[in-house]
Write a structure and sequence with these properties.
By secondary structure, the chain is an alpha/beta fold. It has 2 domains: 122 residues, Ribosomal protein L1/L10, rRNA-binding domain (Ribulose 1,5 Bisphosphate Carboxylase/Oxygenase, 2-Layer Sandwich); 84 residues, Rossmann fold (3-Layer(aba) Sandwich), CATH 3.40.50. The strands form 3 sheets. It has a 4-stranded antiparallel β-sheet, with helices on one face. A 3-stranded parallel β-sheet has the order 4-3-5, with helices on both faces. A two-stranded antiparallel sheet has the order 2-6. β3, α3 and β4 form a beta-alpha-beta unit. It is globular and about 55 Å long. The mean pLDDT is 90.
Length: 231
């Protein structure tokens, strides 16, 4: 059996596993129980009353966090030559087309987001098996397939994130870092949760937000009372 460190024991002692905390209480507590020496990510896990097997309930979307993610996203812009200057000016870390498709084919994936023009999507088919499992495939639903590449890149750099429901009906998303203030984390969390509420499928029956948990990297999970979140 794995041995629990002293820091972990102290952190777990501060969290009442039987209690449902308000959103603000949970986000203040998650900063207190963090045990890492680095600036850990703060993540939310939301279990929804949806059936991901049904197309209209397989939720997928984006949200622009008002206080950003605390991490600078590395963006690759796959564009034609006439759009390269625009992509570079918007802050893309890598810009090009054929050479990057070849690099990815050879195993390079040192990026966080790919923004692509609709006219080049056909060329990405041969690297779809590489990009898909890593969540890197551009998609119109997440705003990463567009002719307005400068706006898409700027949004990603400013804190726009994408999310999708998994096969268990759970959505996982970052809402910041432990270095953020509790108010900043709350602002990001409210924006994320409000986005999920607005996306509620008309065919979803019963309770929509079933459970919400927040945790930082390697910290115990803190349960949030779904009733404190307005649907």
């Amino acid at each position: 059996m794995a041995k629990i460190s002293k820091k972990r024991k102290v952190a777990e002692a501060k969290v009442d596993a039987s209690k449902l905390y308000s959103l603000e209480e949970a986000l203040a507590l998650v900063k207190e129980v963090n045990t890492t020496k680095f600036d850990a990510s703060v993540d939310m896990h939301v279990r929804l009353g949806v059936d991901p097997r049904k197309a209209d309930q397989a939720l997928r979307g984006t949200v622009s966090l008002p206080h950003g993610t605390g991490k600078t996203k590395r963006v690759l812009a796959l564009v034609t030559p006439d759009k390269e200057d625009e992509a570079k000016a918007a802050g893309a870390d890598h810009v090009g087309l054929d050479e990057y498709i070849q690099k990815i084919s050879d195993g390079w994936t040192d990026i966080d987001v790919i923004v692509a023009m609709p006219t080049v999507m056909a060329q990405l088919g041969k690297i779809g098996r590489i990009l898909g499992p890593r969540g890197l495939m551009p998609n119109p639903k997440t705003g990463t397939v567009t002719m307005d590449v400068s706006a898409a890149i700027a949004e990603v750099k400013a804190g726009k994130i994408s999310f999708r429901v998994d096969k268990f009906g759970i959505i996982h998303s970052t809402v910041g870092r432990v270095s953020f203030s509790a108010d900043q984390l709350a602002g990001n969390a409210h924006e994320f949760l409000n986005t999920l509420v607005k996306m509620k499928p008309s065919t979803a029956k019963g309770t929509y937000i079933k459970s919400v948990t927040v945790a930082s990297t390697m910290s115990p999970g803190i349960k949030i009372d779904p009733r404190s979140i307005k649907e």
